[in-house]
Design brief:
The chain is built from 19 helices and 14 strands. It has 471 residues and is an alpha/beta fold.
Length: 471
C-alpha cells in the first residue's frame, strides 16, 4: 500500500514594483524619474486599458499602483473597480487634480489605499509609497508567520501508510465538515495535535485562529488567566487587561491538550462555556460570549477518571461528541519506514548537513524498535542522528539509543536490567565522546544546561580520555 502525501504551496513575497497609470506623459516621466531615483522599479502605462492588459499578462502582480482619477478611455474609478476585483492584493493610490477631492474620497470607499492631490510635494509621494510597501511587507510577513504556525500544527506533508491511521485520518476529515466538539485520545507523541490541526484547517473555520494550550504545563491560576483572560489589577502582576484564548479564538478552534489534567474548578468553568458560550474573565463581573469549537486531547482514560471523581461526567460528555483514538506507532509499524526519509529531510535541512540516508543496520534497528515515545521520538532520534553522524549516513552509533542494536546482535547491557540510570550514563558518555568532550556542545545536544551536564559528569565519575580536550 502506497503512503498518502498531502502538500500545500507557499506563495512568493511582495516586491517593490510600482505601476503608474496616467494619460499625461510629463506626469508619468516625472514620477518615473523620481521613484527610480529612490531605487524603485517603475512601469508606466498611459491608459486604463493598457494597464489592465499588462496586469493580465503579468506572471505575478506585486508592489502598488499609482492611478489617475481622470483618464479619457476608462475612468480611474472603473479601473480601480476592476483592479480590486481581479488583483485584490495590489494596493492602489489615486492621483487627483484640484476640484476632484470628492471623487478621490469615493475612490477610497471603493478600496483605494490613499490618494494624492495634484500638484503634490515629492515628500508626500515618497512617504505614501514607503508606507504602502511597508504595509505590503508586514502583510506578507504576517501571512508567512501564520503559514509557519500552521505548518507546526498541520505540516505540508502528511504521510500515512497504515490502514489504522488512514481510517483515523479519514474520520477526522469527515468530522472537519461539522462543528462538533472532538476528543482525541492516545499515547503521547502519536500525533494528537496533528489530527486537531487537520480538523480545523479542513473545516469551515480554517480562515480563523487555531489556538492550543497544554493544560498540564501551567498552574491552575495561570491556566485560568490564559483561558479566560483577566482584568487589570485582578491579581498581583496583572498590570493591564488581557484577553484570554477563549476570546482570541472566537470564531475559530481551541485545542485543549492534556485536558485530563484540568482541575475540577476549571472544569466547571469550562463546562459553562461549552453549554452557552459564556465565560467570565478573572477579576471581571460581566460575562463575555465566544463562539469556539473545542478539540480536546488526553493520554488518560477519561471514563476511568470520571468514575474516580477526578473528571466531571457532564464535561466528559460535552467534549466526547466524537472520539478519535490514535494507535501507537508500535501498532502501525508500516508507517515507520516512510516516515524515516521524511524526518531525515527535515533534520538535514535543520542542521545544515547533507545526509544521504541510514546504514542498513540503523534502518533495520529503527524498524524493530518499539518506539515508546511514538512518532515524536522517531523524529527526535532521526534529528539527533543527523547531528551526530560522522559521514553522510546515519549509523547505529549516531542514533544514540542504548536499546538499539542491529538484528541478531546482543546489547552490551541486557535490556531487562538496563536501568534508567544506566541509559542516562551511556547517553552522556556517548555524546561527550562524540563531541570530544566539548561540554557546551554536548550539553546542547543533550538538551540540558552546562551546569546540569557538569553535575552528571560528577555523578557518573566520568573522565575524558584526553583531559586537555575538556572545555
Amino acid at each position: 500500500m502506497n503512503p498518502i502525501f498531502f502538500a500545500n504551496e507557499l506563495g512568493g513575497l511582495m516586491g517593490n514594483l510600482i505601476y503608474i497609470c496616467d494619460d499625461e506623459d510629463e506626469m508619468c516621466h516625472y514620477l518615473q524619474k523620481l521613484l527610480e531615483g529612490h531605487n524603485y522599479q517603475v512601469e508606466c502605462h498611459y491608459s486604463g486599458k493598457d494597464l489592465l492588459a499588462a496586469l493580465s499578462r503579468a506572471e505575478e502582480v506585486q508592489g502598488m499602483l499609482l492611478l489617475d482619477v481622470k483618464m479619457p478611455d476608462v475612468d480611474g474609478q472603473e479601473v480601480l473597480h476592476q483592479v480590486r476585483n481581479q488583483f485584490p492584493q495590489l494596493p492602489v493610490a489615486m492621483m487627483t487634480g484640484y476640484g476632484t477631492i470628492e471623487s478621490a474620497v469615493t475612490s477610497m470607499k471603493l478600496g483605494a489605499f490613499d490618494y494624492l492631490t495634484k500638484p503634490f510635494p515629492q515628500e508626500r509621494l515618497l512617504s505614501l509609497v514607503e508606507n504602502c510597501l511597508e504595509r505590503n511587507q508586514l502583510r506578507e510577513e504576517n501571512r508567512a508567520l501564520k503559514q509557519e504556525l500552521r505548518e507546526r500544527i498541520y505540516p505540508e506533508t502528511i504521510i500515512i501508510n497504515s490502514q489504522a491511521f488512514r481510517d483515523i485520518y479519514n474520520l477526522a476529515l469527515r468530522v472537519a465538515g461539522t462543528d462538533s466538539n472532538v476528543l482525541v485520545t492516545g499515547e503521547s507523541g502519536t500525533g494528537k495535535e496533528l489530527i486537531a490541526g487537520t480538523i480545523h484547517y479542513q473545516g469551515a473555520r480554517s480562515d480563523k485562529l487555531f489556538l492550543a494550550i497544554n493544560c498540564a504545563a501551567l498552574t491552575e491560576t495561570l491556566l485560568e488567566s490564559q483561558l479566560f483572560g483577566h482584568a487589570k489589577g485582578a491579581f498581583t502582576g496583572a498590570s493591564q487587561t488581557q484577553k484570554g484564548l477563549l476570546e482570541e479564538a472566537n470564531g475559530g478552534t481551541l485545542f485543549l491538550d492534556e485536558i485530563g489534567e484540568l482541575s475540577l474548578n476549571l472544569q466547571a468553568k469550562l463546562l459553562r462555556v461549552l453549554e452557552n458560550g459564556e465565560f467570565l474573565p478573572v477579576g471581571m463581573t460581566r460575562p463575555k460570549q465566544t463562539n469556539v469549537r473545542f478539540i480536546a486531547a488526553t493520554n488518560k482514560n477519561l471514563e476511568e477518571e470520571t468514575r474516580a471523581g477526578r473528571f466531571r461526567e457532564d464535561l466528559f460528555y460535552r467534549l466526547n461528541v466524537v472520539t478519535l483514538n490514535l494507535p501507537p506507532l508500535r501498532e502501525r509499524p508500516e508507517d515507520i519506514e516512510p516516515l524515516i526519509p521524511h524526518f531525515l529531510g527535515l533534520a538535514a535541512k535543520k542542521v545544515g548537513r547533507k545526509i544521504s540516508g541510514l546504514t542498513p543496520e540503523a534502518l533495520a534497528a529503527l524498524k524493530s524498535y518499539p518506539w515508546p515515545g511514538n512518532v515524536r521520538e522517531l523524529q527526535n532520534v532521526i534529528e539527533r542522528g543527523a547531528i551526530l553522524c560522522r559521514g553522510d549516513q546515519i549509523d547505529l552509533e549516531a542514533l544514540a539509543i542504548p536499546q538499539l542494536a542491529a538484528p541478531g546482535e546482543e546489547n552490551s547491557v541486557v535490556l531487562d536490567s538496563f536501568s534508567l540510570r544506566d541509559a542516562e550514563r551511556a547517553q552522556v558518555e556517548r555524546v561527550l565522546a562524540r563531541t570530544g568532550w566539548h561540554k557546551s556542545q554536548a550539553a546542547n545536544l543533550l538538551g540540558v544546561t552546562r551546569k546540569t551536564l557538569d553535575k552528571k559528569i560528577r555523578e557518573f565519575a566520568l573522565e575524558p580520555d584526553k583531559p586537555e580536550q575538556s572545555r
